[in-house]
Amino acid sequence: MYLPVPLFGYLCDRYSPPPLSLLAGLLFGAGYLLAAFTYRSGPPSDAIEGGSGWPFGIMILAFIGIGAGTSCMYLSAVATCAKNFSTAKYRGFMLAVPIAAFGLSGMWQSQIGARLLYTKLPNGHRGGVDVFKFFIFLAGILIGVGILGTLCLRIVNEEELIDRGVEELERSGLLEDSDFFRNDANGNGHRNYGTAVDSEADAASDHSSEADLRLSESVLFKKRDEENRLRRKKSWLLNHATHSFLTDRTMWLLAAGFFLLTGPGEAYINNLGTIIPTLTPRTYFDPDGDPPAGRPETHVSIIAITSTLARLFTGSLSDLFAPASQPENPPSTRVSFSRLVLLLPSAFLLFLSFINLALPFMTPATPSLFLLSSGLLGLGYGASFSLVPIIISVVWGVENFATNWGVVAMMPAGGAAVWSIVYSLGYSNASGGNECTGYACFAWWAWGCAASVGIAIILWGFAWRLWIRRNVIV
Model's pTM, two decimal places? Predict the structure, then answer.
């Protein structure tokens, strides 16, 4: 889901969002259908004796398609909003909407799986999710959404967007060293075709039909040349923007902080289903009731709701109180503050989520407080996924947004892998080969995650300080 994001972002910037949305539908459909029938085939022979199911590798292949499809669909939506509303008053909110929808999907889909697409136990009670039906449901709905995006996602007035980016570079003096723009200023390129059109029309004035034909061919040739010139100008601008982004020190501070913050968040979401049993006392038995720490689908819904609210709320606040990008004349009297004033406290909420889990007299003593950790994590995690792309669009522009955000959005992959391994090692060591219960199952992991988020806050503080020194308005 994360590793191919820079590649898909690059393709999205250069070839527009619709092809990416179509690719998302194809990847999702193939991935979930393959996963459904792999699951239905049962366990393979290397899992149990006598098993006849498909190999595990086929399921891995299915989820590669699912992860890649997630990246494609997410980027096509976010990039469309970022570019179409780059100069709008509520650009932050409009960028937060598809990001919020991305988080909200987990809430309603988990509830459909748990309450509609479930298996029935022999005693008539509701069992777990019917995985085969759930995968088929996801395949169908995501193929439809991919096709809808292909038909409806459009970048409006992209030429104006490119010209605006070029004008900003002209003001900075960076275009003086460009052979491409120097040649264009000397009259090379499409301007010559205008002369050809005029001369041909004058020479053929006595032969109207032949003149019309030549004129039409010349106009078509001129139009193609203008399209080629726009394509070359766009390619030049995007290549320059990518280079500037990757060589900026503050970008790496922002990316490192995102790595350290989202990694623990991803690991928490991935493993909360195994944390719940560790908080369940051995003497507890109520097959029809909820565990003391809550059901997994309840936590998924809490995280989805809180992250959605956080994304919309912080996106809206960033519009209402963000400082003006240009000096105002006369000076405005409205209250304004940097977007980092929203990002750093949001990260602190994520820090508190792990502290609540790590302190032995909090969640381990009162398992129901695990629900509080999920709520705090959803707020902090959701806000960071809204504010970081907004900051990227403000500091480095939107012309190359999908590529730039794709580079930073790749960071959770490494962070999730690191902290999931740490959790697994701690769980295995504390379990002694059996199912693990108690505080020792997650204690060191929770403290480590809290420290990681704390370091992320410090790195973002350094980046903010450098932006202030450069007079970059964030």
Answer: 0.81
